[in-house]
Amino acid sequence: MGVGRFVYTPILPLMHTQAGLSSAAGANLATANYIGYLVGALMGIAMPALVRSPAVLRGSLIVLTGSLVAMPATHSTTVWIVLRLLAGLTSALIFVVAVSSVLSHLRDHPAHLPGWAFGGVGAGIALSGLLVLVLRSVADWRAAWWASAGLAAVFAAVSWNLRPEDTPASEAGSTTGPARQDPRPHRWFTALFAAYTLEGIGYIVAGTFLVAAIEQSSPGWAGSGAWVLVGLAAVPSSALWARLGRRWSRPDLLCAALVIQAVGIALPALIGGVAAALISALLFGATFLGVSTIALAAGTHLQFPRSVALLTAGYSVGQILGPLVVTPLLHHGYHQALILAALVVLAAAGAAAVLRIGFPHHMAVVRSTVPGRRSATAETRPLRTDRP
Fold first, then answer.
1. CB under 8 Å to 382, separation ≥6 — which residues?
2. Counting Cβ atoms within 10 Å, is residue 49 exposed (0-12), middle (13-18) or buried (19+)?
3. Which of 271-280, 323-332, 358-367, 374-383 has the lowest mean pLDDT?
4. What proportion of the chain, given as a percentage, has pLDDT over 90?
5. Contact 40, 93 (CB under 8 A)
6. Is residue 250 left, alpha or beta, with left meaning phi > 0 and alpha meaning psi from -120 to 50?
7. Are strands 364-366 and 380-382 parallel, antiparallel or unpaired?
8. Which among 303, 290, 284 has a CA at the least distance from the CA of 342?
9. CA angle at 50 for the pair 49 and 51, rounded to the nearest 5°
């Protein structure tokens, strides 16, 4: 998923110079991918059986890899849009199946283990970025797409036998008694939803145009090199933020991560040079998966109905809006777009700061009864803030 969804970012500058892709068309391709991702995420939410289907996983792996193979077969922007739409949809389905599998099979394990699994996205980003970095001096944009398809095929083969979630969520989440709900969490969920949606807008601008922006003021290799660093920093980020959750509250961590990310996004626009580009990549890569980890855990903690689904939908809508909002600024390059994205992420940090004012750190929850596990009664206990 890290290859299929994000390799477009380091290939984008090559398509501008070699395939005649305009900045506006590049933004449209990115938007199509994010629309597809939203549709795929909603399909996973509306049809839970998809999450437990090996056939859906394998079909998505095939279609995602095929969409990469087909990109260099045409110069039609319309076809490219359809292919990136398919890549987004299948990426979402792969992610939903993989996350559900991880959370199901690692339910009783330390929280940092799922975090390492999520780091696979970062590994895909790093490897595909390294591939493009090597190829850009010896081949063209077509070879970059074909090589990334080959890399995706390797990972598809390795993940072919991944076991989806064992037990339907309706059964795994059944309880023998009602949970005591606190009406105030609804208020704080609104702040969390606003922060996460704004993060979707700001993060995706950097996630789409960071390489192209860096290459405007730095040597050509710096952009692809920075993207490799983004992936490498993302690999351990979710696990590390999960560990930090043992010492600090989620609102504090969310606010801190968003501020750090905003600084990373703004750096290439405010300070030129390779050093600023690499620091930007490190800060961005270390936070974008961590923000998702913290926000989704906070939504679950608040016990707001369907919190993960709502937060994911808001985040996905933000990803669609991001490229559209900055498209008018792209006529003058990418630096203005990055500055606007940084300001949006700072606004998300402001919403997170509101969240931390009265965040209910201790709430009553019900221990679920899972078929086949040792549990006979519902137990009401305070939810600890040191666990994601």
1. 362, 363, 364, 365
2. exposed
3. 374-383
4. 39
5. yes
6. alpha
7. antiparallel
8. 284
9. 90
Of 64, 74, 71, nearest to 3 by C-alpha is: 64
Q: Where are the alpha helices (DSSP H) in 136-249?
A: 141-158, 169-172, 185-217, 220-234, 237-244
Burial class from Cβ neighbours inside 10 Å (0-12, 13-18, 19+) for residue 228 reads buried
Tell me if 329 sits within 8 A of 336, measured CB to CB. yes
- Integer CA distances (angstroms), 168 to 121, 165, 253, in order: 25, 7, 32
b/e per residue 242-252 (b: at least 16 CB within 10 A): bbbbeeebbbb
Q: Which amino acid is at 31?
A: T
The encoded tokens of residue 68 equal: 């990469």
Please give the structure tokens belonging to residue 358: 């009265």
- pLDDT tens digits for range 78-93: 999 999 999 999 998 8
Q: What is the mean pLDDT of residues 140-164?
A: 93
